[in-house]
């Protein structure tokens, strides 16, 4: 059970309230005392509430408040360690306005937590609580870093717009939701049912009727569901398979553009298909280094990528590579965190219809990487799941290794929603037996490539 600490105060929105100690998440046993130290404006009377007790913090020096307390037994887990951090709440915090272009809403108060939908500049959200550098927000629910916006007083209007018009751009199958002022959004998608939903938290709708998209070959009609206080939900059915999409704020509209699925000839499924291959790591970044012979992952990845390119081209695909030799993809002087986005940018520039990132594993997905075998395929977007699933078995079969199937994972290179994207861990380079054996065989890259091609073809011809 999570120990929940509530700090309540009459003080209005004030970002200067900071918990100095303890450090969160904290470990505590049932009989331990917790020293709580909080910095804030002087002359206040903040109270501390755990699940069993309530006490006032003493102002020791102007603006420095302390309390000493024992957590209640019910706040602790069986082995005496807390499962999570303490949560703190300081008064009504007010309204947070996003000032970054695309702030990253997360599921928890640090960059270790998963990303949710990006939030556009200008969006205002109600603050629930603050923890460290992060604010918890409502509608949509999630956490943003303090540095991504400004805190406004609690009385500030959220200024959410009104969904006043839905337009489908003729011929382009692009949906524009006109709203006046920027708002946050969340998406849901059902790849099998070919449906896409855009939730607009806090945005009421003036278009309660069904909008028929008469000019669209892909979108038969659009339905708006009012959600009361929670805003509105726009439901967009699609005639064609949901391949990917682009969703962004443009002028006073939120624009949704589904990626047209490729036209597939079942006899030659790869023909004309634009595919970007990403050989993981490169240059200074070797990736995993084998413990037996010092084989570098970046070289293995490139060997498989080249073999895969050759086979895809034979089938008529148009292949681009994020790198063809041993170098990093972003410019030398670019910041370190630009590297992964540079790889995604190669695919976006090429208007790729598939993206495959190739790696060799060292991560302890199974207990000991030194004796681990097998393939792991990762996807992030729902539209990518089928591709991950389709590759898993044929790849494992082609190289004669066990398949650990497919997993959802938030990796930067496969997060973009424009096209199906997967990250393939072909096998374990951290296993010296494999490093000295199978992975060194000249035929290995071609075998792995054959398996991946088979999987890609299976994915393409499915429900065509
Ligand atoms: Zn890697």
Task: Profile the largest sheet.
Answer: 6 strands, mixed
For the record, the CATH architecture of the largest domain stands as 3-Layer(aba) Sandwich
Q: Which structural class do the helices and strands define?
A: alpha+beta
In total, how many beta strands?
29
User: Average pLDDT across residues?
Assistant: 83
Bound molecules: zinc ion
CATH superfamily of the largest domain: Zn-dependent exopeptidases
Whole-number count of domains: 4
The total of helices stands at 5
What integer value in Å does the Rg equal? 26 Å
What is the name of the CATH topology of the largest domain? Aminopeptidase
How much of the sequence lies in strands comes to 25-35%
Summarize the structure.
By secondary structure, this protein is an alpha+beta fold. It has five helices and 29 strands. Helices cover 15% and strands 33% of the residues.
Tag the structure with descriptive keywords:
alpha+beta, SH3 type barrels, Immunoglobulin-like, 4 domains, 6-stranded mixed beta sheet, 5-stranded antiparallel beta sheet, 29 strands, disordered N terminus, binds zinc ion
Can you describe what's shown?
By secondary structure, the protein is an alpha+beta fold. It has four domains: 6-75, no CATH class; 95-152, SH3 Domains (SH3 type barrels, Roll); 165-258, Immunoglobulin-like; 274-461, Zn-dependent exopeptidases (Aminopeptidase, 3-Layer(aba) Sandwich). It is built from five helices and 29 strands. The protein has helices at residues 297-314, 338-349, 382-399, 432-436, 444-461, and strands at residues 6-8, 18-21, 34-39, 47-49, 54-56, 58-61, 64-69, 95-98, 102-106, 115-120, 124-131, 134-138, 142-145, 149-152, 165-169, 174-178, 186-190, 195-201, 211-212, 221-226, 231-237, 245-250, 253-258, 274-279, 318-321, 354-361, 375-379, 403-408, 421-428. The strands form seven sheets. The protein has a six-stranded mixed sheet, with helices on both faces. α1 packs across α5 and α3 packs antiparallel against α5. The relative contact order is 0.09. Residues 1-6, 8-13 and 73-91 have low confidence and may be disordered. Bound molecules: zinc ion (ZN). The site of zinc ion (ZN) has 5 residues, from loops.
